[in-house]
Write a structure and sequence with these properties.
This protein is 47% helix and 10% strand. By secondary structure, it is α/β, with parallel strands linked by helices. Helix 4 links the parallel strand 3 and strand 4.
Length: 374
């Protein structure tokens, strides 16, 4: 299983239909999920910081509608999953178990009733921040004051970590059985959550800082804290979070095409949208930057050696990134990861944990008391 895929926001909301063969256009489509052996996919509900009050929550619901429509049109291939029992049922029926994760706390618009509404519609994790901080939680990007594209300060924060309202959000998520996703959050928010939560946390798409020191990755003490909490870190496949040289070499390519980049900025394009556009246009230059698949396995290895095989999984971030490691073209290539883990000497038992068992354990731990109460 994979805990983070952005195909809804990057393709479906732009008129592409994953019921069709989208090879060469996207990382994902329904047929390729099957080819890649994906049994469970968490679809990310995403919008950026341009969406705020009166728009972010509405857009999240529209994006959810698109997944509901896909599932309704493909009842023999897909099934919406909101509990561990339904997950097992979908897998037994050989249907793609479709889960929902909301990437960005700004989509609740500072309202607990919106959080409850998203949960009732099927969201089973909330990433407390995206790169943009909320009024109640600070992001990794803002806490480090570093823009990944320019290296320049990203703006001053009014607060770091969780506010009192932020702690209310965490407590309500614990009570309703919604997983707290700490990918994208700053260290202050991370440790405030650890002091507040009574349930294991999720990092749906994050990698290792010691190997690739970028603002989005986890430091050793954070990895140890996740293990102590009983949570799980789902390793991100993005080249820029795996390879410490990638961002510098990427900036050099974009600098060569700065006239186009600056023109797109004048059109008020978001920086990540500009990056994706340039990466596609100059795909030949970007191809040379892709790290080997072995580096992805190194990130998994690092976590396993530090805290054990019970606390790591896969959160690819496909269709939300412009570059994957060599050998990976899309979701159809997940079996290559299994092969690489076998090549490193991992046991079948530990591989099954990494491929989904650890996430299911965290999912069950978050829903257990809720299910008993019902």
């Amino acid at each position: 299983m994979d805990t983070h895929n952005d195909v809804l926001s990057s393709a479906t909301m732009h008129g592409l239909n994953i019921e069709n063969d989208l090879t060469g256009k996207t990382h994902s489509d329904i047929a390729r999920f099957k080819t890649g052996g994906i049994d469970v996919q968490v679809f990310s509900i995403f919008c950026d910081e341009a969406f705020g009050k009166y728009t972010a929550f509405q857009f999240a619901n529209i994006e959810m509608d698109s997944l509901y429509a896909l599932v309704k049109r493909n009842p023999r291939k897909m099934m919406l999953v909101t509990s561990p029992a339904l997950l097992q049922k979908a897998v037994r029926q050989k249907k793609l178990a479709c889960m929902i994760g909301v990437e960005g706390g700004h989509m609740i618009e500072d309202r607990l009733d919106y959080l409850d509404s998203l949960y009732r519609r099927g969201a089973r994790y909330l990433t407390l921040t995206w790169n943009n901080s909320t009024a109640w939680a600070s992001s990794a990007k803002d806490e480090t004051s570093s823009d990944p594209d320019t290296g320049m300060p990203s703006g001053e924060l009014k607060h770091k970590g969780l506010t009192d309202f932020g702690r209310q959000v965490v407590k309500q998520m614990n009570e309703m059985g919604m997983m707290i996703d700490l990918s994208h959050v700053g260290e202050h928010t991370f440790y405030d959550v650890m002091k507040t939560t009574t349930k294991p946390v999720l990092l749906s798409h994050s990698s290792v800082y010691a190997i690739c020191p970028v603002f989005r990755n986890l430091k050793d003490e954070q990895i140890k804290a996740v293990a102590k909490n009983g949570g799980v870190i789902q390793v991100n496949f993005y080249s820029g979070f795996l390879d410490s040289n990638y961002q510098r070499r990427r900036r050099e390519i974009f600098q060569r095409h700065r006239i186009e980049r600056d023109s797109l900025k004048q059109l008020s394009w978001q920086s990540y949208t500009i990056s994706e556009w340039l990466a596609k246009k100059y795909a030949g230059e970007m191809e040379a930057l892709r790290p080997p698949l072995s580096l992805l396995i190194d990130h998994i290895d690092y976590i396993v050696k530090l805290v054990g095989a019970d606390y790591v999984g896969l959160g690819a971030d496909m269709d939300g990134i412009e570059s994957l490691p060599q050998e990976l073209k899309g979701v159809e290539d997940f079996p290559k990861i299994t092969k690489a883990l076998l090549g490193r000497g991992y046991s079948e038992k530990d591989i099954l944990k990494i491929l989904g068992g650890n996430f299911i354990r965290v999912f069950k731990a978050n829903t257990k008391n809720v299910l008993q109460a019902k």
